[in-house]
Amino acid sequence: MIDLTKFLSTIVLTFSFTSPEPAKLQYNPEFILQAVLDYKKLSFRPDVRLPEIKYESQATLKEFQDDLEPQWGFRPEVITNAYVIKKNVIYLIDEKEYYERHQRCIDDSLAHELAHYIQSQYRGWDLNDDSLEWDAIDVQNWFRENYCR
Fold first, then answer.
1. What would the pLDDT profile of 56-98 be if each residue is shown by its tens digit?
2. Less Cβ crowding at N or C end of the chain, within 10 Å?
């Protein structure tokens, strides 16, 4: 006979210590950057420092909030995909289920954030311009249609 209390405790412990499977890039970041640069008809600039990529599963909410609050003017309640201009850091959600649920891939999220990196670091544009979000969405959709499987 199964001890129901012991069985339920085992299930709770299993789910408490099991983290969701992370999403993995299909392409390396350099390939994605080059694809976005090609799409935007720009050349790679070795003089521009590449952004650091921090994955949600490896970052703390406090770290994310501390990095984004000066840029966004508020402390986000959750980690999202974002490019931090002053730190030249890209945060990426890396929860596989998130991308499956939205029929996307983590690579298109990186393409979106790299579009913001290019807007800021290559072109010197002010990311407070709302139209630049539409440009990044266009890049993301293009990348998804052409590269996500």
1. 999 999 999 999 999 999 999 999 999 999 999 999 999 999 9
2. N
The pTM assigned to this predicted structure is 0.85
Are the C-beta atoms of 79 and 93 separated by less than 8 Å? yes
For β-strands 52-55 and 89-92, DSSP reports them as parallel
Q: Which two tokens stand for residue 84?
A: 């931090």
The count of other CB atoms within 10 Å of the CB of residue 59 is: 16
3-state SS string over 62-99?
Answer: HHHHHHHHHHHCCCCCCCCCEEECCCCEEEECCEHHHH
> pLDDT of 15-40, one tens digit each?
434 457 899 999 999 999 999 999 99
